[in-house]
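tool_log.txt
---
The assistant was asked to compare two proteins side by side. It first ran the structure predictor on the initial sequence, then on the second. Raw inputs and outputs are pasted verbatim so the downstream comparison step can read them without reformatting.
(1)
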Amino acid sequence: MSQRTRARVYWVGGASAAAVILSAGLANAQAKPPTGNMVEEVVVTAQHKQEAAQTVPIAISAFSQKTLDAAKIEGGPDLLKAIPNVSFTKTNFSGVNLTIRGIGTQAVSVSTDPGVSINFNGTAFIRNRFFEQEFFDLERVEVLRGPQGTLYGRNATAGAVNIISARPTDLFEGEIKGEVGDYASRRLSGFVNIPLIGDKLDLRLAGASTNRDGFANNTTTGNKIDGRDLYSTRVSLGFKPAESVRANLVWEHFSENDNRARSTKQLCTRDPGIPSLGGMTLSPQTSAFFSQGCLNASLYSDAAYGTPNGLSIPFVLASVTKTAVLGLNPDGFSGSVDLLKAVDPYGGAMQSRDLRQVSSMFDPKYRAKADTLELNVDFDLSPTLTLTSQTAYNRDHYFSSQDYNRFNTQPGVFNDSTGLDNLVVAGTPAPNLTPGGVYCDPQLGCSSTIAGLDQSKAKSRQFSQELRLQSAFDGPLNFSLGANYTNYRTIEDYYVFFNIISAIAQSSGYGNNSLDPTKCGKNFDGSTPTITPGGTTGCIYIDPNPLDQVNGLGHNYFRSQNVYKVSSSAAFGELYYNITPDLKLTGGLRYTRDRKTFTPVPTQVLLSSGNGGTVDGGYPVGEDIKQHWGVITGRLGLDWSPKLSFTDQTLLYAFYNRGYKGGGANPPAIGYSDEPLAPGLPPLVQLTSYPDTFKPEYVNAFEVGTKNTLLGGALTLNTSAFYYDYKGYQVSQIQDRTAINENFDSKVWGLEFESNWRPTQALRLTLNLGYQDSKLADGSKSIDVENRTQGNPDFTVMKANPFLPSNCVVSKAYVTSLIAANVATNQPDYAYLGGVCPGSIASLFLVPAPTEADLPNGGRGFYADLSGHGLPNQPKWTQSLSAEYSLPLSDGWVGAIRGDVYHQSQSWARVYEDAIDKLHGWYNVNLRLTVAKPDSGLEFELYAKNLLDDSPITGAFINSDDTALTTNVFTLDPRVIGASVRKRF
């Protein structure tokens, strides 16, 4: 079935269902349904008190464990398929982006706060396993749309998710469920509830485990990757020493150890560079100076499954243009031998169009552990006053590594170093760095190809305490007052290893600049290295340890260490005043005090005290960046419950909400020395200065809505409309080998429709529709790393030398004059081109010298006008439709069939709305068949998730200039067909 045909089928089906629901609901509102036809009513605690979801003046979607099972919502990523104006995608660096009404987490920094507050039993956790962990033994999941600036406070500008675990009861009961499916998947889950001491003490034990083979194939290793081996356990203890005291102690443990892939595909439309300039034909090396590596082009074309122009990668370019050399030819005539052969190491190879097929030298590794301990206690101070204490502690660790690229270079790209003469000490042999064209990297091993791997690891701790006082007076006035304290600390390390970088660090022309060749070079081959991590010999310190034992001091790899802590305290309160029995006024305020401390640790790849750095090895720590904010947020609104003749229950509400999310610190830049190279000269390298910090986000939100129950409880119709004035939305991109976060103002608006209908006891229908849009403020602008020239034909992108991490933009007229001047003096046509980009001291010696007009914005390029652009990952339309039909069978058995269809329209991966940013809309279809015998607690299930086996691109992340601007893309799980059996007792 074609995409267009699918769209027609789904749209016709959705429109027909909407028409049926609306016409039946309004035309037959007076009709009384048969007994037992009521839609399931979910009790929620969105306002920190138990209320029916239909009576809460908030746009909220709530799901019981039964509903989650029926819809095959097995974890956080599945929630988008049942809620309007919600989207979800994996992102880079082990992150995720849950977006509600266009607002999510687009910034990259350890100090970035989430836009959606993820809560477990009412406590918000900054680091959580919302993406990895699967749902099990829950009472319900609540998703609140819109800013929750009073009761939830910080980090809830988009909304909040509250996951409520099942509590112990005074009944002995249990359940066990076994499941098998495609990809050798096995899942086991269950619980047992044990009353211990009458109605005073109850114990509940629950757990779930999942094992399956990988969804993707690595053609290089021959292994399946992106598999799962994880489990969760939970122990809950309910204690009721008196009628006025109720306590619940929960310990939850999560563990994963498998080959989960952060991204299973990396796309690139190859940028060949410029073949000629000013009438001159350029050599392959020179042409590579004018290539980004990958073009700004659609991710859906055949060309997108290419590989980069490898010669354009600065580390490669330096190794074919006499910067990094192995030695001298002994004949005395052929000159020096470059580290790499002067060919594109990727050879223009094309990849498979299968998003689940990669060619990587290294299989992914993923390990995560998390422990959460919560104690929630309710004290009834009187029949009308309840004091609640919520105490929580969380400890989290994770480790992830995978091949940096999902494609390989051609074999034999290293030159042979056997028999070469020393470049710096005449009459001595050169270090035999690549014997036979094979280089042995201390971390990545021996290879004749360029190998790369990135590694992310972190550990964090969080403590939270909240106290609330809630009233339940009979009069018109009630309140909820509280105070909250959160302390969170984390250390995150991100490494990138490339064997070409280690080889450059040891090469005679780059890392080994000392006249004593024993000081630099192969200090990991058994000889005693004389380079110390804090030394100043002028040589690059190379970490001699294997990958799993790196000391973190080497300058032969990229390491970004991020040390961060935040303490946040808040006081809040809401007043509820019934003006009349049907009309209620709600007013709330919250004062939040955030204190953040970020310790910058500048990156040091290929730096030493002799080439622009401060030390040969190690990572000097910068001065702490301290930020603090004191912010007032809140909400004000009315809700009205009129008595209408055509509904059983109606709620109308109108609210103003103000939300806040803290700013943060940009990850540190490169640790170049600010000391002059010599008296009268500037430092060896000077980068463009970026702000150390980025600003907070603020939102003023206006919302109106209505919730209606009709047909004696058989039909619910809910609608809402919203308008946001958003200030300072945080967006990130990789510049100068770090994440630079910028702030943008935007307007956001939209509509939502939710309906549940049970026309007969056997039939259930659900329809959700969402529309949303946004526009960045006039005058919004930013440098787009994918399109630095902004289409100006008189300028070109230039590659820098390895000192400088980003591309620059230079006028073609200037570059033409420089090449012509060099060729006229018998220099190769690429001579000095590495010094054109501003920042390197080599630029001071360019003849002719560039003017400011030749280097727009200091060489960074032209600003992209973002006025009127939409927010990333915000599809204008989302629709979901489900239908379930059950019928009685013989001997007490009941059969049921359910289908779920979800669609989201196209969206953009970034604010620039380039060709590379466009994400196509996509569909998802699930099917479920069950046969159950309720009296015996037995159920058999057959299901198909992602029935049509669609593989949409749900998100994209563009990598750095110096790794060719490749794009990591993210997709859904493939089709999985499985079966399960459940037994309750």
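(2)
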Amino acid sequence: MKKIFCLIVFLHVMFLCPSLWADPVIVDHTCTDITAIPQSAIEAAKSNLHIAYGHTSHGSQLISGMGSGLDTFMQNNYGTPAGLYTWNEGGTGGALDIDDGFMPGDLGNPDRTTWAARTRTYLNDPTNADVNVVIWSWCGQADTSIANIDIYLNLMEGLIVDYPDVKFVFMTGHLTGSGATGQLNLANAHIRNHCITNSRILYDFADIESFDPAWLDPSWPGNGTDYMALLANDQCYYDSDGNGSRESNWALAWQAAHTQDVHWWASGAAHSQHLNGNLKGYAAWWLWARLAGWNQCTNAPTDLAAGAGTVTGTVDLTWTDNATDEDGYIVQARFNSGSWDNSYASLPANSTGFTDDNNGTPPLAYGTYTYRVVAHKNAGGGDPACDSFPSNTASIEINNPDIPTPPSQLNATVDTHDGTVDLTWQDNSGNETHFIIQRQVDGGAWNNSYDTVSADTTTYTDDNGSSPPLPSGTYTYRVVAANNALVSAPSNTDSAVLSTTPPQAPDNLASSANGTTVTLTWQDNSSNEESFIVQRKRNNQNFGQIVSLAPGTQTYIDEGLTPNNTYTYRVMARNAYGDSAWSNETSEYVVCEQFTITLRQETEIDDAFLDSGSPDTNYGDTRYRSLERYVVKFDLPPELSGMHILEATVSFYGYGSSWPQGQYLNLYPLNSAWEENQVTWNSWPVGSEGGDFSTGNLLASIEMSSGSDHDFYPPADITGIVRQWVRDTVPNHGIILVNDSGVSTSLKATEYNPNSCTYFTITYTQMPPTVNLAPAVFLLGQ
């Protein structure tokens, strides 16, 4: 029996070598409709899969998208049973078993080969004999040469040969804003081609974050847009007007136009937007269901297209029949944003078309119709009845032919001399009787009947009702075409700012660097700017403008910078009357390639509990204990010597605590030496502040507002003290975690399990040529 060719692109190719999969499994943006996955397939995945997932921050988007909020969201909106979309480490309570972060690092950290060796070590451990799925993610390093990608592909192929009972999932790298011709897209395409040619399993991370979820809103105007080609990055910013700067965000726009907890939920995806995290989680469940055997029924139809029927008010569908053993086809349909009718029409085998004529009584009601088609097999030969994956979706809008076509290309321009706003637009209809000018002032309510102009008009001047000038403010416009009582959809909106004074200068300009990307944020202090001007200089060169941004903007991402250079930025506000003063300046040194290491093995960490109730007892070998004081010291590896520390965090694994709001764990640096197998409360005077740590040197304070039961507390940022340890400006005696809350909580130490204990993550690069090495000041969250 053939496998499927669904929206998961399953291409049928014959091979000389045997393979578990007759066709490749490509999970991409067409595989995010979680409602298309039957409950039985989700349950099969939870029953049969034991997954090991290796990742760092970008790869965590899958985990965020599978968070507990997903299960609640699906219950509330789709009526799924509680607990259907749950996972945990071990698969207890009927959940999916995922060993999250089963080994430290990712596909590029600490180098391009260690992940494979760690995978072999993990799979060779008899305690992991049940693991049957392994998946690793990138964290930026896929933007590299084809030769480096081939290292990855060859290592994966070696694992596939040596562990035939394990399904290995390939992955593409997250978007970086380099577009269709960038090296990242070439590298990702190489990975895709390899998986298609060799019948492999691919989770297409990049493709999933390149498209709007058309299945959630078939009438969304951005559907079908490939944002990758528009220089989109992982934060979902893209270039909407072709000027080379990323001024728009497809995910934020979608979220703003849809209702939270109805159409999307707050996933908290790292480096990105909630919607992107949602899609990553939906696609992950599609992958798990597919790996558990969902839909090995028959090949799905493809190339579904919808067009106006030859009879007015009907829709003609056509598709490609890819199956050879189907017993029929089922057309599934949805009207506007309603629920899917999964048995809308049944057709015989070998069908390649269908006319929707409202059950023989045309015309169809006005609205948007969305379709998909599945191939169906009847029960027989001991096999149950089954359906293929659905085809692609196709939508068509049935309109009242008398409604005018909306105008477009609206442009608003200020005439500062007269204090007016001039509008121009394109007339796209041939049957309007007039145009209606709609206006909004300073973000207030829309006046949907502000003024009218006659048919065929394409200009208008807002002169304050023939009494110029207009008062100072921000004026936003849109235009609709009207035909008696019928009104078109509105045009695009455009804004103009009138003012008799220049805008106030922005301030609090701040920056952060991540690889060759610098993110800027600032405070907008004006209400009358028309744009923000961002200038940049490299090293000691002169400032030059790099972008003009829309009013109200308070962030900008500058990508593709050249390493080993210092970039300095400033921002000003501008309107037709003049420019503000410049903001403060901020600088970032763009470093070379970044590396991340994680210390979590018992041999890399010394830790011990200190208990005033047993002041002479050493707890250096204790695996877990209720926390009063907990000391920990990390054995920094020699490769950090001379390196620049970009970020360092420590995470603690808690269990069995009950936290009332407003309670904290406080973290301090230690200033005297201790030994793991000797330290006690009495032998090392930590009972009172003073000699061994100072409450004036607070590194971080961890607040918990809900219980922590077998989970990690939020990571604490200790970059400042780690920089001092690496530079050897202060000795590395470690840190102490102090519970002064009076509330009982418990931690697990490194002796317990390397995946459920304290761990330390450092991201570093080569030391910049000139770095301010002034001693760090210990501040909260440094």
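---
observation on (2): The chain is about 15% helix and 30% strand. Residues 412 and 423 are 5 Å apart (CA to CA).
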